[in-house]
Amino acid sequence: MTSDARAPLTVDEATAEVTYALRGAVLRPNGGEITWAGDEDPATFHLAARTADGAVVGVVRFSPAPCPWRSAAAPWQLRGMATDATVRGTGAGRALVVDGLARVADRGGDLVWCDARVAAAGFYERMGFTVVTEEFDKPGIGPHVGMVTNLSGQYT
Ligand SMILES: CC(C)(COP(=O)(O)OP(=O)(O)OC[C@H]1O[C@@H](n2cnc3c(N)ncnc32)[C@H](O)[C@@H]1OP(=O)(O)O)[C@@H](O)C(=O)NCCC(=O)NCCS
Question: Residue 32: exposed, middle, or buried by beta-carbon count in 10 A (0-12, 13-18, 19+)?
Fold first, then answer.
């Protein structure tokens, strides 16, 4: 299936399985697990961005999880963020994060955190996240930083 980077995108909830192909191609190109603990938890939700022809060009997962660096009443983790190289820079990543943060807020979440690849930290900053850790390494993946965004103004 081909995709047209100029076509309007839609973002909606998807099964975990829908996200695996892009996770593998973008996040684990050299191999490694593409199914993760929590993928099938009832509280977890996955989003897929699709072109008009139905091609999945972006994916992300949100799940309730304690934040390693900040206290919060209802923290959520963003994980598995990936967009197809053919659409990067056209708003797919933004659409997924904006939609996901709204859905987390609707579910009562007050903070969203992620382990951000250093190369993607600027993207998350554009989405309202702040770097809150030193750089750390994830073996086989590379340097990361911890980032958070506050949905309620209440975390300390
Ligand atoms: C990071 C990634 C998800 C961004 O997706 P995208 O579809 O290109 O994002 P968008 O087009 O919606 O970009 C939104 C904004 O962020 C900016 N941006 C995108 N990627 C960026 C980056 N790596 N660094 C700094 N800014 C970035 C865009 O220029 C745009 O800016 P704007 O506010 O002026 O419009 C995508 O590049 C990707 O999948 N990268 C490889 C996998 C990866 O690193 N995932 C994150 C794992 S933690």
Answer: exposed
